[in-house]
Amino acid sequence: MVPEVNLVVAVVVVKRTGYSLVGLLLCGVAQATVLPEERADVLYHSYQGGGVTIQGPSILVRKQSSANTSVVANYYVDMVTSASIDVVTTASKYEEQRKEKSLGIDYLHGKNKMSLSYKVSKENDYYARSANVDISQDMFGDLTTVTLGFSRGWDVVGKRNDSSFAKDTNRRNYRIGLSQIISKNTIMGASFETITDEGFLNNPYRTVRYVDTGVSRGYSYQPEVYPNTHTSNALSFRAKYYLPYRAALRAEVRFYQDDWGVVGQNLEIGYTHPLNDRWILDGHIRTYRQSKADFYSDLFPGQDAQNFLARDKELSTFSNLTLGFGVSYTLLQGGWHFIDRGSINLAYDLIQFDFQDFRDLRNGGTVGNEPLYHYNANVIQFFVSIWY
Amino acid sequence: MMRYLCLLVIALCLNACSSLEPWVKPYERAHLADPIMSFSPDPVSSAYTSHVYDAREGARGAGGESGGGCGCS
Fold it and tell me: Domains in chain A, start-ordered, CATH in brackets?
């Protein structure tokens, strides 16, 4: 199914927000563009890996409330059962739920679009709120879209079985994006985002281990200690190319660094292949690698070995490889009552994690020479979408 | 750094006010309008995928999603 040409501007505008406040004030352009599609999605997600199972629904509904205003709401749940390696080596298995609700509005004015949203995430030991604003503008004959965005987050970190424990974390995200039509078959995008966090950034349950010759196993644990600020920069580029026989190739690369010493890169290549008007197949491969944080160690030489201490495997040196596959089936192509069309979708990703300085303490070995940790994660998404 | 960024944005915006002939005409964008060419054809799925990686990797940001914290890692 190839959409009509007059949808082109819509898709370009919707998928690549772009804008500048100065541009809005100086130019005051007033050509019609479009809002995101009216649709509803019901998704079931499942993540299983490393002793952790996380599953639940996500429901997203978007509705146009006027000619230039669109409202979107999302309800998302993580049902967590965790017996991760951190948990089994230093604590006990636990279950919890995280519920996230968000509400957003997009306002269109000519070639400018403003998006506002507010999000709340609740767990029994973590409460997070965030407000987001993104402003975009199309320019250069709608070939280019520029986006500026800002988010402000207010988190409260709690602790199970300790109602008096409540630590604040404040977050700020600054982002700028550029999307560019290169040719009749190629579109590219670039994005840069700086994120700053301030406050309590530890996991209150996690510990680090250090050499302790006074105990039989040769090591002991103490609570981790993180800096109370964290600033990161990420730069990404992505491109998509339309193949002559109606299929699409895509590539994305991201470079990351932060003031904790973590440097990371990821690269993804994907291919989308419609079989006919109803079936669409998708495959992708993604690699990621990162260096460790300056204050990370799997085994510190002694208690309070330095001012900051971390043994979070997400701050260690590691890499992962994702192999993913998806299939989509279009329903109700002719419409039904208020529904224009629908789709049923299934996606599966296998993620293989390999840690280079995080050791698996469950399988013996001399202190500091235990086998390195690795695990596979299976990620499943099943969702139904309708457009109306 | 921020000063240069602001200057760049202002320059882009001033350019936007002038008439520039697009080298890909609107009637030539049928392929780009095909849903398979969207960077995020299913926002509910894209948001979840970003969340999975954010929770399992040290890197964050520039992934097309807006901010928001959680105790997920």
Answer: 5-387 (2.40.160)
